[in-house]
Amino acid sequence: MSEEARRIARATLPEGLRPETLAVRTALPPSQHCENSEGLFLTSAYVQPDAATSAQRFADSEDFTYSRTSNPTVRSLEARLAAMEGTEGAIATATGMSAILLLCMGLLKAGDHVLCSRSVFGTTINLFAKEFGKFGVETTFVSQTELAEWRAALRPNTRLLFAETPTNPLTEVCDIRALADIAHGAGALLVVDNTYSTPALQQPTRFGADLVMHSATKYMDGQGRVMGGALCGPNRLIKDVFGPVMRTAGMVLSPFNAWVILKGLETLSLRMKAQSEQALAVARWLEARPEVARVYCPALPSHPQHELAMRQQSGQGGAVLSFELKADTPEAARAAAFHVINSTRVLSIATNLGDTKSIITHPATTSHGRLSEAQRQAAGISQGLIRLAVGLEHVDDITDDLNRGLSTLNSL
Ligand SMILES: *Cc1c(COP(=O)(O)O)cnc(C)c1O
């Protein structure tokens, strides 16, 4: 670092800064050009001044040698993420799924057992059950909210407990502290997928989780542009376990995507708060509609884990909600849901979330479309269920858009 760069903002931050400040300021020190916005280092290799320095840098992985090992933009993102989650370290990955891949490659071997909530993201279930099953790692799926099921399913070889809270699309909330106690009592680690709440609302390690996993594709980027993921936790795992696996397995985040996500984090707490408040307003509006049978949103007092959610999520429900339309048969429910979705003229019909653009989804035929009808029923995903990931449009334009279909359902 140049002498001038050493003296300017963020080169060394004072202690005790608040999360919003850390989200804007934490990064590697600036280069000799003293750029204010963090630099984007699109380079695969780093030139070494001489062979002896090169040898020393290859021996000490803290220095930059090759971007599968480390990249300054990616390292800035990792520093900012760790600061926001309140963990010692973080390691960025190409996608959310590759963060779980890195987790399992780092911590598991044939003969190990995993306990996982039945309500986690569908691809996560496939990765544990199908892909890791092939390598002799067995996974048991249990209820998101029944702690007795988690305790009863523990085995002497259980290494990991994996949960996501709130879940998609039914917004079930699990008690992180209680799951951490169960994991630690059995000598296992608790990993929490914090994609939905983000550290702006929920820091799972404060409640005893050992590792936090993210799909940065969602709220961290926040504008639907790039894919990314991360694991956050203590350095004995991040640096000593996952770092070496990453160097050999190579599911690294591209520097460009890291830079986009780094910029997204600067507005994360504003967006999470605004989008959560909009989601609650839409949820209240839906709850008052005669066409709607039930609304799932942790911020509503009618939510079964409302108090727990408010305690864990800084008093916010998050920006994803679901609602179920009244109907007599599954066929009528599906027709009603398709009518409400097809009547929108502003919302995006897509299967993603965490965007400033509100997104409307029919889970039974998209994210949960490959399940049998019986599996879908067991998961509580009815044909009349609609998921809404609330963005930043004016809230009245969102409810007006939903009203186009709701108010014309009797014409079906
Ligand atoms: C999207 C998502 C993932 C997977 O992340 P990708 O970035 O799409 O690989 C994992 N968990 C949750 C909760 C998600 O929403």
* Total DSSP E strands: 12
What is the correct CATH architecture of the largest domain?
Answer: 3-Layer(aba) Sandwich
The unreliable regions are none
Number of domains: 2
Helix coverage percent: 25-40%
- The SS-based structural class is alpha/beta
Query: What is the ordering of alpha helices and beta strands?
Result: HHHHEHEHEHEHEHEEHHHEHEHEEHEH
**Approximately how much beta-strand content do the residues carry?**
5-15%
Task: Please name the CATH topology of the largest domain.
Answer: Aspartate Aminotransferase, domain 2
Shape: globular
Bound ligands, each once: pyridoxal-5'-phosphate
The largest sheet, given as strand count, sense and whether it forms a barrel, is:
7 strands, mixed
Kindly provide the radius of gyration, computed on alpha-carbon positions and rounded to a whole number of angstroms: 22 Å
Strand arrangement across the biggest beta sheet? 1-7-6-5-4-2-3
Number of helices: 16
CATH homologous superfamily annotation of the largest domain: Type I PLP-dependent aspartate aminotransferase-like (Major domain)
State the end-to-end distance. 68 Å
What is the typical, i.e. mean, pLDDT? 95
What can you tell me about this protein's structure?
This is O-succinylhomoserine sulfhydrylase. Homotetramer. InterPro entries: Cys/Met-Metab_PyrdxlP-dep_enz, Cys_met_metab_PP, O-succ-hSer_sulfhydrylase, PyrdxlP-dep_Trfase, PyrdxlP-dep_Trfase_major, PyrdxlP-dep_Trfase_small. It is globular, with a radius of gyration of 22 Å. α6 links the parallel β2 and β3. The strands form 2 sheets. The chain has a 7-stranded mixed beta sheet, with helices on both faces. It has a 5-stranded mixed beta sheet with strand order 8-9-12-11-10. The chain is 40% helix and 14% strand. The protein has 412 residues and is of the alpha/beta class. It starts with a helix and ends in a 6-residue tail after the last helix. The chain binds pyridoxal-5'-phosphate. Pyridoxal-5'-phosphate (PLP) binds next to α5. The site of pyridoxal-5'-phosphate has 15 residues, from α5.
